[in-house]
Amino acid sequence: MQRLNKDFFVRDVLDVAPDLLGKVIVRKFDNGEIKKFVITETEAYCGEEDLACHASKGKTKRTETMYMEGGHIYIYLIYGMYYMLNFVTSHKDNPQAVLIRGVDNVIGPGRVGKILQIDKSFNKQSILTSDNFWIEQGEIEKLKYRTDVRVGIDYAGEYWKNRPWRFILKK
DNA sequence: ACAAAGATCCGT
DNA sequence: CGGATCTTTGTA
């Protein structure tokens, strides 16, 4: 199965986020077991002007990952409990990322992080070259999806709150 | 130094 | 609907 390359991720986040639907996350766990997870729900976070994006605060110790080139993994801990899995997109210094909200029948970014056994050590790693975590082309030819507003960003103001930047795979 | 809030989830 | 739980960030 074809592994996704750099060109896939070095594009605008609004193109990458829907294109990730149906792609397959492959995870090799510490015990050697390999499992695959089809991506079913994503959300786009779109640079410094997007008030829902962490990078709207500028470049900080946490957000500097998003300023890396597309193809890097962005992990952060939320509410002291849940590791959120994101993939950086676009060129260096354009802080965009896609949040993985659902895989297979696992809905919710916190649950995704848990089932994939993700932690902070994956932050800033490359999804293009790591040998225990990568993404493959899926088998679905023409998939259908719907859009909706993003979740948990009421603080971002009416405009950004209402962008239809959540992408959900249709069965 | 300290306080506040957060791209969430679970149980009641 | 409230609690868990701790890092990041702003303010003093």
| CATH level 1 name | Alpha Beta
Work out the helicity level: 10-25%
Radius of gyration: 15 Å
Enter the CATH topology name.
3-methyladenine DNA Glycosylase, Chain A
Mean pLDDT: 97
The CATH architecture classification is Roll
List the uncertain runs. Answer: none
Strand content: 25-35%
The main β sheet shows up as: 9 strands, antiparallel
The number of E-state strands comes to 9
Give the count of structural domains. Answer: 1
Gap between N and C termini, in Å? 22 Å
Shape, per Cα inertia axes: globular
Secondary-structure class:
alpha+beta
How would you characterize the overall build of this protein?
- The chain contains four helices and nine strands, in the order ααββββββαββαβ.
- Strands 1, 2, 3, 4, 5, 6, 7, 8 and 9 form a nine-stranded antiparallel sheet that branches.
- It has helices at 6-9, 13-19, 109-115, 157-161, and strands at 24-28, 34-46, 73-78, 82-88, 96-103, 106-107, 133-136, 145-148, 166-169.
- Helices cover 13% and strands 31% of the residues.
- A hairpin with a 5-residue loop joins strand 1 (24-28) and strand 2.
- The chain is globular.
- The protein has a single domain (6-169), classed as Methylpurine-DNA glycosylase (MPG) (3-methyladenine DNA Glycosylase, Chain A), CATH 3.10.300.
- It is α+β, with helices and mostly antiparallel strands.
